[in-house]
Amino acid sequence: MYLTAGAAAFPHLATAATTNFTKPKFASPNERVNLACCGIGNRGGEIIGDLYDTGLANIVALCDVDMEAPHTTKVLEQFPDVPRFKDFRSMFDKMGNQIEAVTVGVPDFSHFPICIEAMSRGIHVYVEKPMARTFNECELLMKAANKYSNVVTQMGNQGHSEANYFQFKSWFEAGIIKDVTAITAHMNAPRRWHEWDPNISSFPPAEPIPSTLDWDEWLSTRPFHDYNKDFVNGQWRCWYDFGMGALGDWGAHIIDTAHEFLDLGLPYEVDPIKLEGHNKFFFPMSTTLAFKFPERNGMPALDITWYDGIDNLPPIPDGYGVSGLDPNIPPPSTGEIEPAKLNPGKIIYSKELTFKGGSHGSALSIIPEEKAQEMATKLPEVPETPSNHFKNFLLACKGQEQTRSPFHIAGPLSQVFCLGVLAQQLNTKLEFDREKKIITNNKTANELLIGPPPRKGWEQYYKV
What is the rounded CA–CA span in Å between residue 92 and residue 349? Predict the structure, then answer.
């Protein structure tokens, strides 16, 4: 199979994380992985469906801090007899010996303690992206994965098991993708905070806590905040205190393959070129960030420039063509991507070739079209994926595959986003020592690599 176009060249692959409603073909009970699930509504519920649909999982425990909320109904009705918990610690204490793996489909800031607790008990972990909210939490998760080396880990950038992963790997190994000097990464769909006033001077006021919600458990390690509806049910992504904005949400679906196969590691500089609507509470209306990476293993220095914001489209090269709406790219949680805008993706510039691609599993195209036709007979065959991201995780739990986004791969990628978010939050250029893993030009930023101490009762998770 030779590739000159995008994801349409891979009809056997599906990227969108949607639950299929046909009954799965189950493995025999003793061949399935006993799976506990933390976060069972919204994206957490989709993860459960995708893992269950492989036929390789027994759902043995459900955990959610708002177990009676409307968004949990679907999963609760599908698994009515499965034990339910609001506190993951109670779940592990009572059922740990029955649990082989856990899903972590909760807000960014609460990924960390659940993953640490699970790994310390020898339980395999599937966690949504980004891996954690702070640079130090990512560092500790990588340290824990090394310490508990029998534990399987997978971050949920599901395109890392689909077309773009295998194509990028094949094209890189064949020398088609080489001498890359610049990458443009872009996500220009509306975000949840775009209708907010960036001139706010405080967090939103306290509201009554819903009777079904365990607010203290929801906060987990974070310093105390009064409850407000704009902190929960996906709204957490808007706030520096809780989420990682557009970069943390979509970066792992756009630059993941380039980061891994071009061996980028950590940048030595992050420069906020544009932060429109900057404030100290939630993310800017538009952001342009420049990440600078040095020469590596014979590869040239490389810059990644990230663009988000509705009217902050990146420049596109001659011969780019149309930004088609790739059906393999799931829409943002706020709604459909507008076809008139540039769809989420990347442009990769090398010394000889230019590539364009979408997000998630979308395959790359060589541009302009004339160059793609010239290269058509020189492209290597790209193997089909033996398993999607969910099946890959469960087969790895069974010792039959290795995960494609384990913590030693996903951790440095997530740390790139952590550095980018710090540059957004502080509205300043950061100079980073890649060896010592410290920010050298800004004391406040360097302290925020770790952040404030955890709330009382959560300190033990930071002692790996």
Answer: 48
Distance CA 217, CA 461 (A): 15
Q: Are residues 169 and 284 in the same domain?
A: yes
Q: Give the pair of three-digit tokens for residue 161.
A: 């098991």
Distance CA 305, CA 196 (A): 25
67 dihedral zone (left: phi>0; alpha: psi -120 to 50; beta): alpha
Strands 438-439 and 430-433: antiparallel
pLDDT in tens, 385-438: 999 999 999 999 999 999 999 999 999 999 999 999 999 999 999 999 999 999
**190 and 291 in a common domain:** yes
Query: CATH number, domain at 290?
Result: 3.30.360
> Minimal CA–CA distance to 333: which of 75, 8, 102, 105?
105
Please check whether residue 146 lies inside any domain of the structure: yes
End-to-end CA distance of the chain: 46
Contacts of 235 (CB under 8 A, 6+ apart): 192, 229
Domain of 349, in residue numbers? 163-385+412-448
| pLDDT tens-digit map of 109-166 | 999 999 999 999 999 999 999 999 999 999 999 999 999 999 999 999 999 999 999 9
d(CA 315, CA 312) in angstroms, rounded, equals: 10
Q: Round to whole Å and give the CA distance between 357 and 348.
A: 8
Alpha-carbon gap, residue 13 to 164, rounded angstroms: 10
